[in-house]
Amino acid sequence: MEKLGKWVEQSKNIVLFTGAGVSAESGIPTYRGRDGYWEKYDPDKYANIDYFFKDPSYYWNFFKEVRYPVLENAKPNIAHKSIAKLEKMGRIKSVITQNIDGLHREAGSENILELHGNTRMFSCIGCKAEFAMAEINDLLGQSLPPRCSHCGGTIRPQVVFFGETLDPDILKRARQDSFQSDLFIAAGSSLVVQPAASLPLIAKQNSAKLAIINIDPTPLDSMADIVLNISVSRVFSKIITGSDHLAH
Questions:
Q1: 17 has which bridge partners?
Q2: What is the per-residue pLDDT across 113-133, written as a single tens digit (0 to 9) for each?
Q3: Domain holding 100: CATH number?
């Protein structure tokens, strides 16, 4: 942690890449960890775009009974807040996240690339009207699945379902930021989901230092310069403790 703290102090272009482990301490269950969503619910139904179009009520039942209560109570933890603080200090240039919970944004981070979208944001497939989570909760009280209040069309979350491709513009920016980084920190990610898991490789191949922070081992540990198998919050709380001298 001391070495990583020094690198954060010395680096000019830091990219943070975050996964589900960052939000676990906010009460957002991880997909692959114990007690993950995938142990209780069928991703081939609630997370699959083909099934969504076949029966959107399955997703919306899942959202109403499981996801909404979790999101409503989840708050940014020390990792989210520390990352936002380091960004404001000019240390972190961008946050690339696999997470769809919106907690980086709520914590105050601004330069965020949400690879898989944001489950707090919704839009009508027909007229493209957009809805906030509170509006969706009201619409769910009227019908399930909820219907667009403008045209009566089907509403979907602004997330990337299985069977869909990532937004090419966001992915391009993520690759550019990774290529330009001099320190790439992968935090709370299993680093197995592609193409997101290729971003640390892009950074490393362009001579960036690579730090991996994750409770469990990852397939890229052998090529990392630092591997910390501890909680992300613990690492960033340590870094931020002496952060006053980190600002440009």
A1: 96, 186
A2: 999 999 999 999 999 999 999
A3: 3.40.50.1220
Q: Residue 243 — pLDDT band, cuts 50, 70, 90? A: low
Range with lowest mean pLDDT among 26-30, 89-93, 242-246: 242-246
Amino acid of residue 39: E
Last residue of a domain, one of 139, 159, 179: 159
CA distance 169 to 112: 13
Residue 183 CA, distance from chain mean position: 19
Do residues 184 and 135 share a domain? no
Burial of 183 (0-12, 13-18, 19+ CB in 10 A): buried
Which active-site residues does the annotation give? 116
In which order are the strands placed within the sheet that holds 117-124?
130-132, 117-124, 155-159
Which residues, 6 or more positions from 16, have their beta carbon under 8 angstroms from its beta carbon? 83, 92, 94, 95, 96, 185, 187
Which CATH number belongs to the domain containing residue 38 in this structure? 3.30.1600.10
Percent of the chain topping pLDDT 70 = 93
Domain count, the chain: 2
